[in-house]
């Protein structure tokens, strides 16, 4: 019994043309290049990743979603992150893959710990029950991650920069 880890990075993200989406940034840092997804402070913006449910164990049905992020300019405030999932079983599900719906969205409010802009933070939430969209091992998945910038709980001034998303699930 162990855990499966899937790391998802900004350059791998996809976007819907008809909705607001975060800007992909590549910054030449002092010592190395850095990529971010830049989520606006006053809008709801989403990025999407396609992946497979490799070795997903049904005995512990949940997925932990960690968002590693930083504030572009702020040194305090709260960011409201949201994650949701589409899951489809090849040769079993009868809905068109292009028309599949997301499971229940889950949100987390994460507080910037202060002192420095672009300091890395980690927000964590758990997808379970209806949020998993009946996920099973071998399913095709689409993960949606958004910042709900217009929400009253989101008080971080300026953009929130997403560095990566880490998914974790049990293989048993």
Radius of gyration: 16 Å
Unreliable residue stretches: none
Domains counted in the coordinates: how many? 1
CATH superfamily: Galactose-binding domain-like
- Count of individual beta strands: 10
In summary, what is this structure?
This protein has 172 residues and is mainly beta. It has strands spanning 3-8, 23-28, 33-39, 44-52, 62-71, 78-88, 106-111, 121-128, 140-148, 160-170.
Report on this structure.
The chain is mostly beta strands and 172 residues long. The chain has one domain: Jelly Rolls, CATH 2.60.120.260. It is 0% helix and 48% strand. The chain has strands at 3-8, 23-28, 33-39, 44-52, 62-71, 78-88, 106-111, 121-128, 140-148, 160-170. Strands 1, 2, 3, 5, 8 and 10 form a six-stranded antiparallel beta sheet that branches. A four-stranded antiparallel beta sheet has the order 4-9-6-7, with no helix packed on it. The termini are close together. The model has no long low-confidence stretch (mean pLDDT 95).
């Amino acid at each position: 019994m162990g855990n499966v880890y899937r790391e998802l990075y900004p350059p791998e993200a996809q976007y819907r043309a008809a909705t607001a989406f975060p800007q992909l940034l590549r910054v030449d840092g002092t010592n190395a290049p850095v990529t971010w997804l830049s989520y606006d402070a006053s809008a709801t913006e989403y990025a999407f990743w396609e992946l497979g449910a490799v070795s997903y164990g049904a005995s512990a049905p949940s997925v932990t979603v960690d968002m590693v992020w930083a504030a572009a300019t702020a040194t305090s405030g709260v960011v409201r992150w949201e994650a949701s999932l589409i899951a489809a079983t090849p040769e079993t599900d009868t809905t068109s893959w292009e028309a599949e719906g997301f499971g229940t969205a889950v949100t987390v409010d994460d507080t910037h710990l202060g002192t420095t802009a672009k300091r890395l933070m980690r927000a964590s939430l758990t997808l379970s029950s209806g949020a998993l969209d009946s996920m099973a091992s071998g399913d095709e998945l689409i993960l949606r991650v958004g910042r709900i910038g217009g929400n009253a709980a989101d008080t971080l001034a300026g953009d929130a920069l997403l560095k990566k998303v880490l998914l974790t699930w049990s293989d048993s």
